[in-house]
From TrEMBL:
UniProt superkingdom: Bacteria
SUPFAM superfamilies listed in its UniProt record: Dimeric alpha+beta barrel
Lineage summary: Bacteria, Bacillati, Actinomycetota, Actinomycetes, Mycobacteriales
Name of this chain's protein: YCII-related domain-containing protein
Length: 102
């Protein structure tokens, strides 16, 4: 079954209180459970990052804030699975990319 890389961008800032962190983690863990066997890698949030080009020049990093990897029958099915991602409720976005076997 094809794999899809979900790249997260934007959304709410990291929670400041323990209660807010627990609520955020509950939303993510619930989404992961709902994905079931489609979830290949829950991924991680991104911390400090940099971007370089072929000249090695430091460039502003993208707005990506994290990732997950899942399987789906096709891109439309992957988009549907991503449509309930918690980052969307926090005002963020999800970019879905097919992972190509090389």
């Amino acid at each position: 079954m094809p794999k899809y890389h979900l790249t997260y961008g934007g959304g709410a800032q990291m929670p400041e209180t323990t209660r807010e962190m627990e609520a955020m983690m509950q939303a993510w863990n619930s989404w992961f459970r709902d994905l079931g066997d489609a979830l290949v890698d829950p991924g991680n949030a991104f911390g400090d990052r940099r971007r370089i080009d072929s000249a090695g020049a430091g460039l502003p990093a993208t707005g990506a804030t994290g990732y997950s990897i899942l399987t789906a029958d096709d891109l439309d099915a992957a988009v549907a699975l991503a449509g309930t991602n918690p980052v969307l409720a926090a005002g963020g976005a999800v970019e879905i990319s097919a992972c190509l076997d090389m």
